[in-house]
Structures are given as structure tokens and as C-alpha cells.
């Protein structure tokens, strides 16, 4: 028989990774919004994601809903532990989500909705980063319940991951703009991509080091012989991706910087997977302890096997329909 | 006083508040998505541009309402974990996969095709655009299917066993998904969504007809909505009655609260109005029709009906809320039927668009569907108390180990944020509804980049091209 919890941990991680990449670039635009000074640039940036952001955010529902469905114990332990960041994220997402509609419907208050879009995006990103950090550093567990307080997530490490994610999403957002726009806005985007690219790679290095010092088991996973043979290529790949990003930006490439930024995120995810496997609540609960019964896992897997390829198909189609460069003032009509 | 504000009460208030806000939007968008598909279909079939004007008119409103539905729904999906983590751990293995199917079969479908529906006419052409509209409509219906399956399972759980750590474990998925109350609840809710939308559409149509009774698109809205009222509202009453009988079979406590009955007996009267008093265990100031409740519920005037006293006090729902919410829902249902019959008579004598009073009544009835949906939801959810999974898992035992101040703070922020955001959204929707549905006002405003996120008419369709083709 298949190891269903293992398959599902892989699927949930993939859903979250897809979410991070897809919503990452449209949240990144919100972070960059204050720097896009003119209304025209802001309109162009917003229009470049308007047809797809809804689908992007759906992966967050799949990540959360999937965790609930397949690892209910992990969901029940992590959500109360991350109570404040999760709610802050939701409030941020509410404001930025409706800003997509409202800033057009209500020109008189456009400044307010632009502000809401930026603040919402930054809040959501920072909260997600904090949640990630709080997750990696672990939560107090007693039996089948969360045993910590509601401020346990607040540590220097989680602040660091919060800031790192802001830099990372801003990098995705600016490389997206490099791909989707041209002219003055496109050139601006290249500059932002350089700054955020350097910041992102620096954050990756710092956080990797900090993670190793969190628990001796992380150190053992990465640095003991012969494991190091398998783990060492990851940091080298990160360095290479950072270098390629710089090169692509200098050479005025369109879509390669965006793909490279995505590669950085994928590498970080792989690194995270190496650190945490097989835990789903780090160093406390393994994926097999937290998994729902096989009946539940199998029931959902059957549908996922059929529906997920279809979803990927029409998602790709939607992106294909709206492919190509944006021009200032031009929409999709 | 402060003792009263326990984490449980606060978490319940938070869930009630956020879900009450949320339910408004799906109730509207389920109906509106289907309506848009019908309008676009009629336009493609007949080439009559008035259908297109109506389509574009409601498409903008749909975009705003859908956006608010998405963000308020996102909140719901995480609240299970934050405030109700014990429930999540215990019931997750059963309801989690159903919610997973909702995401996979419904949310992605809606979100994936929404962009094309709103912006893509120019890029994909009419046929594929219509496919996108249909996919969005199907998505809303699939969503209703799964979410009502989950809700119904929490009301009438079947197909499960318990494992050694106290979790519900599915043993028969067919029995879980198609649990005893599910078909009734699904039909009742989808019809409610269709009626809610119909009355909004009819109210807006009537509003514009009051100003100009020759407006063609407004006539289309008004007439279609009243056909809906005339035929679907009576069907809804019939479906509601069947749903009630099903509830009597599986959740007699809830029916006793709906009816305000404390004493078990035969020849039970139908209490039209009164004040159920849980402390005194009787319904005061009751206005009754003798034997009628037995007749309605058991189809036998001597039928025995259980009263609330059959259960211990701590296993009864709060009666007055359920009792009154039920009466509000039923009253609105009959008003809807009344308006439908009235419109049929008006149609028969050929004065559908002439009767000012009928139009005014339609305007007043416009928002009533929302009130009925909320009242119905209160009946079904408050009537399930004190359980989250009826008869098996108490609400008090479903809570997260989280401190009351945390829940209180988040509740306060929710209240402020929701009133700002959804208040603004409702205002924009009303503004859109105030615009006369004709080519000029629903067309693009010149000189501005009209590409709202999802609301540009020209993005959905280019009028000039169509007109040349029709000529």
C-alpha cells in the first residue's frame, strides 16, 4: 500500500509552494506600490495581475484546507499557536483583496484604497513570514493540544523571517514587472529587482545560519557526514541562482529574472524540507502522527489526482490568455 | 458581567458574525452567476442587445460581490483552526476532505475562469467567453454542494465511527456526503439563493421602471425576476416543508424550538406568535391554532409531538431566537409568493409594467431575500446548539485552548474591519445599482482607463463590433 501521509505531505507542501510563488508576486506588487509614484504606473501594475490574483489566492485556501483535511492534528496545533499572525494575515488579505475592486469603483478615495492595498500586502507578507519563522522554531505541545501562550510566536528569529519574506515577495513582484512591462516602468522594475535580489539572498544566508543554531538536530541533518554530500549542493545552487539573477537583469532579459526568482524560492523550500522532514509540527509531531485516517487520505487523493491536473491546465490557460507586455493605460480590451 | 464573556461565547460570536457577513455574498453570487449565464446565453441565441446590456450591468455588481465573498470566505476557512481547534482535530478527518473537494472542484473553477469572464471577451472570443461564464456558474453550485454537505453532516452525522484518540473517522463516504438532511438542505439553499438574486434583480428593475417604464433592459430584469417569484417561491415553500419534516425526524429538539413547544403531547397547537421563555419553560402570550402543529408536522391532528421538556435543560437550543428567526423566514417566503401571484395577475391583464404599486412592492421586497437567508441560517445553526456535531460533540468541547482576550481582540478588529470594508462594498454596489441600465451608462466612460479590476464593460464585450455584425 502507498504511504498516504508521505504523499500528502508532499502535495500540501507543493500547494503551499505554488501559493507562495503565485500570490508572492502579486503581494510583492503591493509592497512595491509606494515606489510606483504615478497613478499610471500603479494602474499598469494592478492591471497586470487583476485577472489572475483570485486564482493565486485560492492556493492559500487549498494549503490551509488541505492541511485541515489530511493532517487535522497539525492544523489544530499550529493554528492556535499562530493565532495572531494568521489573523493579521487575514486582515491584510481582506484589505488588499477588496482594494482591487474598490480603487476603481471609487476614484474619490483612491488614495485610501492604494494605502489599503500596500498596507494590506505588507501586513499579509510580514505575517506569513512570521508564521513561517514561528513554525520552524517550533511550538509547545501537550498531548493533542497547543500548550503555549498567544505571544510565543514573537521572537527575533520570526521577525527576521518576516522581513525576509517581504524582501522575497518584493523580488518576485519586481521581476514580474520586469517581465510584464516596458519603458520607464520596466527600467524601474530592474532597479528594484537588483536591490530586492541582493536583500533576498542575504536574508537566505542569515536565516540558514540562524536555523542551524535553533536545534542541534538541524545541525546534524545538514552537516554530519555523509548527509552533507546531499545537502551541500543546496547552498551552492542558491548562490548560483543569485548570480544568474544579476546577470539576467544586466542583460535586460524579460522573463528569465522572474524564473530565477522562482528558483530561489523553490531552493529555499527544498532546504526547509530537508531541515524539517519528517516533522509537520517541527521536532514534535511527525507527518504519520498527525495524519488523518487512510480512509480520509485516500478519498481526497482520488479526487485530487483527477482534479489537480485539470486545475493546473486551466490556470495555465488563464495565464496564457493574458500573456505579453502591458502598456501604460492599456488594459485587456 | 466580565465572567459572562468567556472564550466560548466570544468565539461563537466571532463565528456567527463572520459567517453572517459571508453568507450574504454566496447567497447572492450563486444566483447571480446562473443569471449571468442565462443572460449571456439569451444574448448569444437571440442577438438581442438588451440582454447584453443587462449582462454587463450585473457583471460589474457580480465582480464586487464576488470579491467580498472570496475574502470573507478565506477568513472562515482559517477560523476552524484558530478558534475551534479541538473541533478541527476531531471532525477534521470527516469534514476536511469535503472542504478539500470544495476548494478543488469549486474555488479553483470560479477563480480560474473569473478573470476570463471579466476581462477576456476580446482575447478568447464569444464562445469561449460563454464557457468561462458557465464554468463560474457551475463553480458556485459545486461550492454550494460541498459546503452544504459539510453543514448537513454536522446536523445529521452518519457514516462515521470513533477511533482510539476520539476522532470521527469516516467509514462510508457515501453516507457522509449524502447524509439524511443533505438533499433537503441543498435544494432549500440553492432555491433561496436563486430567489434572493431574483428579488434583488427585480427590485433594481422595478426601481428603474418607476423612473422610465419603457427601459428595455429594466423590463427584462423585472419580468424575469417575477417569473422566478411566481414559480420558484411556491416550490421553495414546498421544499421548506419537506425540509422541516426531515428536521423533525432527525433533530426534533430544533423543531420544538422552532415551534415554541415545551410540552410533549397530541393535538398540539400551532403557535403563530408568542414569547418563548426558557426559564419558565413555556411560551407566553401565545396566539394559537388548536391541533394545527400536529396536522402540519405529522399530517394527523392527533399526532404526538415532542416538546423541549423531553430533553435536559443543557441540551436545548436557545428557544426564542430560533422561534423568531423561523417566523421571519416563513413570513418573507409567503410575501414572496404573494408578489409572484400578484405579478401573474398583472401579466394576465397586460399591465405588468404599468402598475406603480406592484413596482414599488418589488423595490421594497428587493433586499428581503437576504433577510430570509440570514433568518433561515439562524434557525438551522442556533437550532443545532449546544452541539457542533449534533448530539455528539458539544460546542463547549470544540474550542481552541486560547485565552479570552485574544478572541475578544480579534472579534473587535473583525467588527471594525468588516464594517469599513463591507460597508464600502455595499455602498459601491448600491451606486452601481442606481445607474440606469442602458448602453450609455453601462458602457465605458471615455477619457479614463476604465479597466476596473473585473468591472469594465468594454472588457467583457465590445459593443461596436457586435452592432456591425448584427447589421
UniProtKB/TrEMBL annotation, chain A:
Q: Which residues cross the membrane?
A: 6-36, 82-100, 112-136, 156-179, 191-210, 222-246, 258-277, 297-322
Q: How does it sit in the membrane?
A: Multi-pass membrane protein
Residues folding into a coiled coil are none
Its subcellular locations are: Cell membrane
Tell me the InterPro entries matching this sequence: Cyt-d_oxidase_su2 (IPR003317)
Where this protein primarily resides, as one coarse class? membrane
Family, similarity comment:
Belongs to the cytochrome ubiquinol oxidase subunit 2 family.
Q: Which NCBIfam families match?
A: cydB (TIGR00203)
Query: What name does this protein carry?
Result: Cytochrome d ubiquinol oxidase subunit II
Q: Species name for this entry? A: Kordiimonas pumila
From TrEMBL, chain B:
Which membrane topology describes this protein? Multi-pass membrane protein
Compositionally skewed regions (Basic and acidic residues) per UniProt:
462-471
Q: Which UniProt keywords apply?
A: Cell membrane, Electron transport, Heme, Iron, Membrane, Metal-binding, Transmembrane, Transmembrane helix, Transport
Q: Entry's InterPro entries?
A: Cyt-d_ubiquinol_oxidase_su_1
Localized where?
Cell inner membrane; Cell membrane
- Coarse class of the primary localization is membrane
**Domain of life, per the record?**
Bacteria
Signal peptide extent: none
- Enumerate the transmembrane spans: 15-36, 57-78, 98-121, 128-148, 186-210, 222-239, 321-349, 361-379, 399-430
- Give me the ranges of the annotated region Disordered: 439-471
- Family as reported in the entry's similarity comment: Belongs to the cytochrome ubiquinol oxidase subunit 1 family.
Q: What is this protein called?
A: Cytochrome ubiquinol oxidase subunit I
Give the organism the record lists: Kordiimonas pumila
Amino acid at each position: 500500500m502507498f504511504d498516504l501521509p508521505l504523499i500528502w505531505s508532499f502535495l500540501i507542501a507543493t500547494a503551499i509552494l505554488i501559493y507562495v510563488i503565485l500570490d508572492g508576486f502579486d503581494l510583492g506588487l503591493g509592497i512595491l506600490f509606494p515606489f510606483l509614484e504615478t497613478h499610471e504606473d500603479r494602474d499598469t501594475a494592478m492591471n497586470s495581475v487583476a485577472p489572475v490574483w483570485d486564482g493565486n489566492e485560492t492556493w492559500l485556501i487549498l494549503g490551509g484546507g488541505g492541511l485541515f483535511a489530511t493532517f487535522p492534528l497539525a492544523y489544530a496545533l499550529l493554528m492556535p499557536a499562530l493565532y495572531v499572525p494568521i489573523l493579521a494575515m487575514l486582515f491584510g488579505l481582506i484589505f488588499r483583496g477588496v482594494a482591487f475592486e474598490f480603487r476603481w469603483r471609487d476614484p474619490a478615495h483612491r488614495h485610501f484604497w492604494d494605502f489599503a492595498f500596500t498596507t494590506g500586502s505588507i501586513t499579509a507578507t510580514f505575517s506569513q513570514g512570521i508564521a513561517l519563522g514561528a513554525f520552524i522554531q517550533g511550538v509547545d505541545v501537550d498531548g493533542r493540544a497547543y500548550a503555549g501562550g498567544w505571544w510565543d510566536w514573537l521572537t527575533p528569529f520570526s521577525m527576521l523571517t518576516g522581513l525576509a519574506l517581504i524582501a522575497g515577495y518584493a523580488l518576485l513582484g519586481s521581476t514580474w514587472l520586469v517581465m510584464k512591462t516596458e519603458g520607464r516602468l520596466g527600467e524601474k522594475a530592474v532597479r528594484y529587482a537588483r536591490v530586492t535580489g541582493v536583500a533576498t539572498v542575504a536574508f537566505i544566508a542569515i536565516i540558514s545560519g540562524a536555523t542551524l543554531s535553533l536545534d542541534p538536530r538541524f545541525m546534524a541533518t545538514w552537516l554530519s557526514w555523509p548527509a552533507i554530500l546531499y545537502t551541500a549542493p543546496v547552498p551552492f545552487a542558491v548562490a548560483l541562482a543569485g548570480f544568474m539573477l544579476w546577470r539576467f537583469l544586466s542583460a535586460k532579459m524579460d522573463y528569465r529574472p522572474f524564473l530565477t526568482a522562482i528558483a530561489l524560492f523553490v531552493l529555499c523550500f527544498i532546504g526547509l524540507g530537508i531541515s524539517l522532514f519528517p516533522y509537520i509540527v517541527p521536532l514534535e509531531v511527525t507527518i504519520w502522527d498527525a495524519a488523518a485516517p487512510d480512509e480520509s487520505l485516500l478519498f481526497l487523493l482520488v479526487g485530487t489526482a483527477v482534479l489537480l491536473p485539470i486545475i493546473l491546465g486551466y490556470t495555465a490557460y488563464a495565464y496564457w490568455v493574458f500573456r505579453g507586455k502591458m502598456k501604460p493605460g492599456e488594459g485587456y480590451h | 458581567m466580565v465572567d459572562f464573556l468567556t472564550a466560548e461565547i466570544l468565539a461563537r460570536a466571532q463565528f456567527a458574525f463572520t459567517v453572517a457577513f459571508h453568507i450574504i455574498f454566496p447567497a447572492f453570487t450563486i444566483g447571480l452567476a446562473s443569471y449571468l449565464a442565462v443572460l449571456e446565453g439569451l444574448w448569444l441565441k437571440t442577438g438581442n442587445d438588451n440582454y447584453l446590456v443587462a449582462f454587463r450591468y450585473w457583471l460589474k455588481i457580480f465582480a464586487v460581490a464576488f470579491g467580498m465573498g472570496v475574502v470573507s470566505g478565506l477568513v472562515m476557512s482559517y477560523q476552524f483552526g484558530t478558534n475551534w481547534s479541538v473541533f478541527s482535530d476531531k471532525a477534521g478527518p470527516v469534514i476536511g476532505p469535503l472542504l478539500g473537494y470544495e476548494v478543488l472542484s469549486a474555488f479553483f473553477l470560479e477563480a480560474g475562469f473569473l478573470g476570463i469572464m471579466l476581462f477576456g471577451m476580446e482575447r478568447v472570443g464569444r464562445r469561449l467567453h460563454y464557457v468561462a461564464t458557465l464554468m463560474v456558474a457551475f463553480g458556485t453550485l459545486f461550492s454550494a454542494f460541498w459546503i452544504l454537505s459539510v453543514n448537513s453532516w454536522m446536523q445529521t452525522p452518519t457514516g462515521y465511527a470513533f477511533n482510539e484518540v476520539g476522532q470521527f473517522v469516516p467509514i462510508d463516504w457515501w453516507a457522509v456526503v449524502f447524509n439524511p438532511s443533505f438533499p433537503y438542505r441543498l435544494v432549500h439553499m440553492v432555491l433561496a439563493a436563486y430567489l434572493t438574486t431574483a428579488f434583488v434583480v427585480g427590485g433594481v428593475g422595478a426601481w428603474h421602471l418607476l423612473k422610465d417604464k419603457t427601459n428595455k433592459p429594466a423590463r427584462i430584469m423585472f419580468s424575469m425576476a417575477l417569473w422566478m417569484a411566481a414559480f420558484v417561491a411556491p416550490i421553495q415553500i414546498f421544499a421548506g416543508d419537506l425540509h422541516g419534516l426531515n428536521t423533525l425526524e432527525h433533530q426534533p429538539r430544533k423543531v420544538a424550538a422552532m415551534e415554541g413547544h415545551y410540552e410533549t403531547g397530541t393535538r398540539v397547537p400551532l403557535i403563530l406568535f408568542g414569547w418563548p421563555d426558557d426559564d419558565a419553560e413555556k411560551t407566553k402570550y401565545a396566539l394559537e391554532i388548536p391541533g394545527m402543529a400536529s396536522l402540519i408536522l405529522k399530517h394527523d391532528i392527533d399526532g404526538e409531538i415532542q416538546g423541549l421538556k423531553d430533553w435536559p435543560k443543557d441540551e436545548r437550543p436557545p428557544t426564542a431566537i430560533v422561534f423568531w428567526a423561523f417566523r421571519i423566514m416563513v413570513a418573507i417566503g409567503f410575501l414572496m409568493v404573494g408578489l409572484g401571484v400578484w405579478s401573474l395577475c398583472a401579466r394576465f391583464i397586460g399591465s405588468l409594467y404599468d402598475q406603480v404599486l406592484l413596482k414599488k412592492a418589488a423595490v421594497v421586497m428587493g433586499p428581503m431575500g437576504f433577510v430570509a437567508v440570514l433568518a433561515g441560517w439562524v434557525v438551522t445553526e442556533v437550532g443545532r446548539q449546544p452541539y457542533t456535531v449534533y448530539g455528539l460533540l458539544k460546542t463547549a468541547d470544540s474550542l481552541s485552548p486560547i485565552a479570552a482576550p485574544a478572541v475578544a481582540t480579534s472579534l473587535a478588529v473583525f467588527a471594525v474591519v468588516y464594517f469599513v470594508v463591507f460597508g464600502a462594498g455595499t455602498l459601491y454596489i448600491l451606486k452601481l445599482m442606481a445607474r440606469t441600465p442602458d448602453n450609455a451608462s453601462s458602457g465605458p466612460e471615455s477619457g479614463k482607463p476604465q479597466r476596473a479590476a473585473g468591472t469594465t464593460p468594454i472588457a467583457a464585450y465590445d459593443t461596436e463590433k457586435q452592432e456591425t455584425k448584427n447589421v
